Amino acid sequence: MKKATLVGIVVSGLLVIGTAPAAAQVKADTSEVHIYAGKLFGDDLTDKDVSGRRPKLDDDVTFGARYGYNFTKAWGLEISAGRSPNQATRTPGGDINLDLTTVDVDAVWHFTPKARIVGYLVGGAGYAFSSLDRPIRGTVQGVPVSIGDDNGFTLNGGVGAKFFATQSFLIRVEARYRYVDRLVDRFDNSLSTVETTAGVGWTF
């Protein structure tokens, strides 16, 4: 989690730098479009060992797009879609490709809308879709098993900062915790993941 901690420190530093008063950067009745990329830090996929090892969603790249609408300077709503071309590791026979897709609907609270750098909190719910290239096959307590992919609901929350380079173009950094109900169809384990991302956006 060292990278997640580093992003948190960077975000905090940016907020301190950006607390000087300035013209409001976030305006009511405006839209924002963002693209981002970063890192996803995974967790165990199952609650039991398979052939002596516990399968895990690996740490890997994540990327996606977001659309947001600001009802007021402080409050907005955001819809996002993300993807991680990931892997299931610690599996019998070697790693297995696991593509992960997430969709979210989140509330956004801009707590420094009049600062040079706008700090915000984000939180909401969504759904996660996983796609394994092949089932995870092995033994659980001596019994042969075949574990396939599955989908599950997610909850997320995070902190970030938006730096407005111009009136319409901005740079965004964020650290977000994500709870995932399940990604496999047997012996499933809820996942606690972290996503650290950076990106650019346009407001109109």
In brief, what are we looking at here?
8% of the residues lie in helices and 59% in strands.
Give a structural overview.
The protein is mainly beta. The chain has a single domain, classed as Porin (Beta Barrel). The chain contains one helix and eleven strands, in the order αβββββββββββ. An eight-stranded antiparallel β-barrel has the order 1-3-4-5-6-9-10-11. Strands 7-8 form a two-stranded antiparallel sheet. A hairpin with a 2-residue loop joins strand 7 (136-140) and strand 8 (143-147). The two termini are 35 Å apart.
Helix-strand blueprint:
Elements: H1 2-17, E1 30-41, E2 56-57, E3 60-70, E4 75-89, E5 96-110, E6 117-132, E7 136-140, E8 143-147, E9 151-164, E10 169-180, E11 191-203
Antiparallel strand pairs: 1-3, 1-11, 2-4, 3-4, 4-5, 5-6, 6-9, 7-8, 9-10, 10-11
Enumerate how many helices there are, as a single number: 1
Strand order of the largest sheet: 1-3-4-5-6-9-10-11
Number of strands: 11
CATH architecture: Beta Barrel
Low-confidence stretches: 13-21
Structural class: mainly beta
Helix content: under 10%
Strand content is over 45%
At the first level of CATH, the class is Mainly Beta
CATH topology grouping: Porin
Query: For the CA atoms, what is the radius of gyration?
Result: 19 Å
Instruction: Assign an overall shape.
Output: elongated
Major beta sheet, specifics? 8 strands, antiparallel, barrel
Order of helices and strands: HEEEEEEEEEEE
- Supply the number of structural domains: 1
- End-to-end Cα distance, whole Å, is 35 Å
Average pLDDT works out at: 91
